[in-house]
Amino acid sequence: MPYFADRPKPVELKQSIPLSTATQRELKSLARACKKSVGASAWHEAAHAVVGVRLGLTLQSIDIRVRVVHDHEGNAAVSSGYTSYRADDLAERFGVVGAHRACAIFAAAGIAAEEDRLTGDLAAASDDFNGIVRFAKLIGIPTHDRSDPILKSFVSDVTDVARRLLSVDKGVAWTHVRTALVAQKTLTPEKVVALMARAGGA
Prior knowledge:
CATH topology: Methane Monooxygenase Hydroxylase, Chain G, domain 1
Strand content: 5-15%
Radius of gyration: 17 Å
Largest sheet: 4 strands, mixed
Order of helices and strands: EEHHEEEEHHHHHEH
Number of strands: 7
């Protein structure tokens, strides 16, 4: 689950936020399921990290810690990982359109990761898809109809770029980052870059 400049990071739920008993049961069940799928979460978040580095984005954090969060609309959910990057200098470095496109490619890494897994759950990349749509809209691409061929072409294009960035070294760096993430649960940006360099794929 990546985070972008136009989307504040969800805040972890505090005990004071009331949740119905049914909602609490559902969230606990989801949390247990997330903990059992550490490898899948690591594969997903490692993809964001590797693509981010290869795009030239400045990573801020990457982890596969399970937590219950709420977004800016107050919706509660279970998250099994976050990968974030510095966004305040993107327009200056890439240009406005280039920055939005880079962010869309970063998000598309989650889709590429889920498609890569034999039992990939594309529902796990729904936030990533929504992120791509958000950046498509900022670029000026029509987004009111998710079946619009222009939007579908943009999603396909950025996902293809993400897939190529993940496979330039046959996925070796991606595997290294994923393995370390499974073992350590949290990686610093410096550790991600070092792992990629060690794999010869930075």
